[in-house]
Amino acid sequence: MSAHRATAPVDAVLDLMMAHQRLLIDPDSPHDDRCAHCRDTQRGRIEVHVRAGRAIPMLLPAFPAKSPNPDKVLGHLPDLAEELSIAFLETLCARIREVYPPGAQLIICSDGRVFNDLVRIPDEHVSAYQQEMANVLDRLGTEHISLYSLDDVYPGTEPERMRQKLWADHAPDLDELRAEVRAGGPALGLYRGITRFLFEDGKVPGFRGSNTTLQRESRTRAYEVIGRSQAWGNLLAVIHPDAVRLSIHPQPCGHEKFGIFLQDNADDDRWLTPWHAVAVEDRGRFRLMKHHAAKTAGGQLVLRHGRPSHYVLPAQTTPHPEG
Ligand SMILES: [Zn+2]
């Protein structure tokens, strides 16, 4: 395919990505989905596959395991929140296939095994979550999505040993990481976001420490979580050097990693994910809420496949415009 003929599908794929971009907003610089900086950063990685006429590999480190915090989630297994996100991502890939027939191959790099010990999630829960995610993909009959985890990298290895191997082979420089966070900018935003998750998720039933202690611990563990995530990212870069790198976290304009929403309604809390929330049906539309918020709003729990699945909010008595 000539350079000229490759341009149209590449731009069409970029249009679809930009329509769902999860951007780290800089209040000082206006931004829209025509942004040349963001497009140019991603263009090269897409073009190389389009010119070769093959599916565009896209990596998304996501769907690690459910938060251990019952105030946020329904339990440790995937539920309708995950299913809706997977259905959305599959639809996005199907739209890519419409504009570029070889399509995209989205590889969900489930990173729960990478840091579950740091966030107090048992390895058995990670295994059960991964198994049920595979069932979700089967049920939905996804054509463009596959799952990949540390278990695929080091098959038949004890989880603790897997994490040691990952760190030994791919660890980032922790001093550099600390310097990046101290310098402010996106690294600081990520650090703060993860510290907040760790603090909130640390308040599990049975936690008896003080908030100050938990806050201090959360800051220390945030560095370890980010470090392990970077080690996982380094490993993925070795295995899939040409893939488009997607992220569930809001990323700054023009970053090599492209932040992407996991659902259509992009007006939700920028940090909510299916594994930190529950799906809530509100007047025929689904969105994510924290578990306690869904209950407080009067939500009715719905069971599917014999397990808690999601909430339905009561019909609102909205005032009629004419009184
Ligand atoms: Zn941009």
General description of the model:
The structure is a single chain. With 323 residues, this protein is α/β, with parallel strands linked by helices. It has one domain. Helix content is 47%, strand content 14%. The chain is built from 11 helices and 9 strands. It has helices at 3-18, 36-52, 80-99, 112-115, 123-140, 150-153, 159-170, 174-182, 186-202, 211-239, 291-296, and strands spanning 56-61, 104-110, 145-149, 244-247, 258-259, 278-282, 285-289, 300-304, 307-312. The strands form 2 sheets. Strands 3-2-1-4-5 form a 5-stranded parallel beta sheet. The protein has a 4-stranded mixed beta sheet with strand order 7-6-9-8. A hairpin with a 2-residue loop joins strand 6 and strand 7. Helix 1 packs antiparallel against helix 3 and helix 9 (186-202) crosses helix 10 (211-239). The radius of gyration is 20 Å and the shape is globular. The termini are far apart. The relative contact order is 0.17. It binds zinc ion (ZN).
